[in-house]
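B., you asked whether I could sanity-check this one before it goes into the benchmark set. Here's the sequence:
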Amino acid sequence: MAGIASRGFVHVAATCVLYYFCFLFLRASATATPTAGRSFTILHVTDVHGWIFGHPHNATLDADFGDLASLLQHLKDAAAQQQRELFLFDSGDIVEGTGLSDATPIHGEYIFPVIAKIRGYDGFTIGNHDIEYPDTVDLIRNSFVPVWNGAYLTANSYIVDSSGKEFIGAPFKLIQTELGSRILVVGYIFNFTQYANNTYVEPVSESLLEAYFSQAMAAAASADLIVVLAHIAPQVPPELAQIYAAIRQAYSTKPLVMLSGHSHVEYFQQFDANAFTLESGCFFQSLGRADFELAADGSMQQLQYQWLPTSLEVFYQVSQTNASTFLTDDGRDIKALIAQYYNELHLNDTFGCSPDTFSPWTLMSDPLSLYTLYIEQVLPYALFEQSARTPFFICNAFTLRTELYAGRVTRNDIFSIDPFAETYAFLPGVQGSMISKLVSYLGAAPPSLLRRLARERRVHEREVEAAVAAGLPQFFHSQLDLQPGTAYDLVFSGYDGVVISQTLGQLFPATNFTVQAYNTNVTSTACWIDYISAKFKC
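And here's what the prediction gave me:
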């Protein structure tokens, strides 16, 4: 098994934050005691972003969520026979990334019902994409949370209305298994600020001082293990370190597993002999696995971890099955439901045929740059209005999510490139000299700005580090020869409008910049559909 805890991991000295809790005396008075000597397997998925149906452009990643349900059933049955504990957890960001997730009026409308049919999930937390839209939050709260019997865990995210706030799910859950183990599970999201207007995300440091945390730590007195589901980048301080420090203030050695997310990377880090974090990639490209023993003294022993590619051949091997014995009845039903939804949304419909594969991870000087195609071809054709002023477009370097592959281009391919269906905005009549200074300022910003942007809605550590390594800019823009005295319409997505207008305001404080809607009948996703349908004929 790849990656053994005694080697290959990164030791990190977490910044200790002292928390004083009035509940500490409850540990001594608890009557229940943890069980001794048991084997554990923890499976982990995170940042699925709608990829529940496999990867049409990657033949090796051919497992879907029907296959995940089948694998889970086989592994649960084997674990029961071996008297081994086995759990499956999800660290959030279920929506935004494919047509199956985002071609519905409510993002996730067809995703959550599929996942709800997978028996064996032991806990979820919420991600920033899940909490970004009011109707998606309502869908989660009303239709998804009740399915899981208190296992959708949102300790620092709330639904809010005129009467106050309450947890979207539950703050924590104490699981007692058939084998007698007790697991305390808590769920958090990072200090996200662009949450939906019917929600609130409390900063982690403040959340840890709330009453639920003392209650959770009291419940943990009888637990064998604490599991934290964290939609938090483990490499980016301070939230995960704060959670670790608070739990260690209450229990200095109790086994602690922190299943992290948001960074879109495979990552392992050991915090102490009995505590680690594991992050398991994104887009259902890999399935994280950690195996360990809890010794009679409560210590974590023989820890091993790995990431399994979501390949049917790998799933057959792990479950000791084959193509004829692997698929379960539940798995078959889930596959049928996925196919039904896929067809209802016409995600396999062809809009055109791309002559090449265009990548979002190259400079615009590359003829196969997806941003060059987008800014120099797609937008002039499908977005720009006829006007006395020439439009100049600018967007952040993480606007486009994945490659446009050569060959047939389907509705799902377009939603995978741009799932946001964004509207556009503009600043009319901006002088070329001002735009040049804006572009230079943004282009000269250090990589630390990119890493800071990683804490926002779309930008993830994997993409940030890839962009830094490739020398990509933080913003892409029109390749016009700007004339200093000429006025242009500065066009951008609504999402980028705040950054662009604020930066211009800092550079030119004497000028008033008022953002206006631009071509309000057109969305970013529609631009791709219009262009590919007209220009990339099969």
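One thing to flag: The chain is about 30% helix and 25% strand. Otherwise nothing jumped out at me.
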